[in-house]
Amino acid sequence: MALFSGFPEGKAHLIPVPAQFFRDLLPQIDHLGELKLTLYVFWRLDRMESAFRYLRRNNFAADQDFMRGLSKLREEAERILDEALEKAVERGTLLKTRLNLETGEEILYFLNSPKGRAAVQAIERGDWRPLPDPEAPVELAMEAPNIFRLYEENIGPLTPMIAEALRDAEDTYPSSWINDAIRIAVENNARNWRYVVAILERWKQEGRDERKDRRDTEKDRRRYIEGEFSDYIKH
């Protein structure tokens, strides 16, 4: 059994799970695959931005870490996935609907929520169908803080100029650098993007000793509070 290292310090993105899940659904679910699939649905739909959010079977099957969580044997994992989908639909957690497209039949799974029910009704009336947009793969192993979300949770609200600066930073610096620079800014009560950029530019110019920068010591804090970045700090 792999040992869980624990949840990290600082703010973390939380996945909204309705209280009704714990009151009405959890006591009834007796199939481990169905439980894992249901929780995965909450996580996966939270990462989507469209007004009507849905999943296809392939969205589950393509996530290797999720499938390995069902079974280490691929064939067995596929069987458990189909069982879990069937049970979630029978229980009413998920709504299953079929679309006849030029490319063949398409099966979509919606969460049984007001929006999910409205989408299924619209599909059955022929009033709505999904756009042919290729979806980028999303996997449990690829979970990482979205830079926009990271900024809003730790620095402040986004503006168009800040959003553009964040995109540039993603193209210029490793994501781990951005995460750590924001962490340092928060620890030093310097919640503004200019301060974060100053740290990133210094690391880029002078190199970075990650072991030293990760140590949470008073000396490290003074280096940023009293040094060249002090103008950016609100005392």
The gist of it:
53% of the residues lie in helices and 7% in strands. The chain is mostly helical and 235 residues long.
Account of the 3D structure:
With 235 residues, this protein is mostly helical. The chain has two domains: 19-142, Arc Repressor Mutant, subunit A; 147-232, no CATH class. 53% of the residues lie in helices and 7% in strands. The protein has helices at residues 19-25, 32-46, 57-61, 64-70, 74-91, 114-125, 147-154, 160-172, 175-187, 193-206, 210-214, 218-225, and strands at 94-101, 104-111. The chain has a two-stranded antiparallel ribbon with strand order 1-2. Helix 2 packs across helix 5. Mean pLDDT is 82; it is low at 136-143 and 214-220.
Percentage of residues assigned to helices: 40-55%
Per CATH, what is the topology of the largest domain?
Arc Repressor Mutant, subunit A
Run of helices and strands = HHHHHEEHHHHHHH
Biggest sheet statistics:
2 strands, antiparallel
What CATH first level of the largest domain would be assigned? Mainly Alpha
Query: Over all CA atoms, what is the radius of gyration?
Result: 22 Å
What's the overall average pLDDT, rounded?
Answer: 82
- Summing up helix and strand content along with how strands pair, one would put the structural category as mainly alpha
Shape designation:
elongated
Strand order of the largest sheet: 1-2
Our measurement of the CA-to-CA distance between the termini, rounded to an integer number of angstroms, reads 47 Å
Number of discrete domains? 2
Name given to the CATH architecture of the largest domain:
Orthogonal Bundle
Number of strands: 2
* Low-confidence blocks of residues: 136-143, 214-220
Strand content: 5-15%
Number of helices: 12
